Amino acid sequence: IGLPPAIGVMVTALLFSLMLQGLSLIGFPGLEERVEGLMNQIDFNDLLMHWMLAFLLFAGALHVNLADLRSYRWPIGLLATLGVLIATVVIGYLAHWVFGLFGWNVPLIYCLLFGALISPTDPIAVLGALRTANASKPLKTTIVGESLFNDGTAVVVFTVL
């Protein structure tokens, strides 16, 4: 569809979700329940933690020079830990507030889990964006290194929550 892959996947998923909602509204009763039943059969913890995350981290780590990472370890470490923690809390509380504006009573813990899920950046998407922007090597190393290590921090935060 002419978009970067990460954005294209998100837009496609959003369109399918809206299509499902639209079909349900125009007279396909039970469609949402059937899809929900299918989704409930998937063990997302196993799928995400043992399959998808490992492949994402491996693919991102293929493009990183360890010597470069070592020279920028402090900014990378701070961004990957404190950055993810702060983003998780800010996103969680913002989501809780926005849901409240719509009258949806979503428990804060779920909003914080949502924050932990979306706080880390995707190393593959970041690397692609930095290549097209012709970023400097120090900036590229710091951002790519942070995007690799923040996944680990987010997994820990998600698991603790």
State Rg: 18 Å
Classification by helices and strands? mainly alpha
**Counting H and I runs of at least 4 residues, what is the number of helices?**
8
For the report, how would you describe the main beta sheet?
A: none
Count the beta strands.
0
Q: In percent, how much strand structure appears in the residues?
A: under 5%
The succession of helices and strands, N to C, reads HHHHHHHH
**What is the end-to-end distance?**
37 Å
Q: What is the helix fraction of residues, given as a range? A: over 70%
* Poorly predicted segments: none
Q: What's the mean pLDDT score?
A: 84
Outline the structure in words.
This protein is an all-alpha fold and 161 residues long. The chain has helices spanning 5-25, 31-40, 44-61, 66-71, 73-101, 108-118, 123-133, 137-160. The radius of gyration is 18 Å and the shape is globular. The model has no long low-confidence stretch (mean pLDDT 84).
SSE arrangement:
Elements: H1 5-25, H2 31-40, H3 44-61, H4 66-71, H5 73-101, H6 108-118, H7 123-133, H8 137-160
Helix pairs in contact: 3-8, 5-6, 5-8, 6-8, 7-8
What descriptors fit this protein?
single chain; 161 residues; mainly alpha; globular
Q: What's this, in brief?
A:
The protein has 161 residues and is mostly helical. It has helices at 5-25, 31-40, 44-61, 66-71, 73-101, 108-118, 123-133, 137-160. The longest helix is centred in the middle third of the chain and has 29 residues, at 73-101.
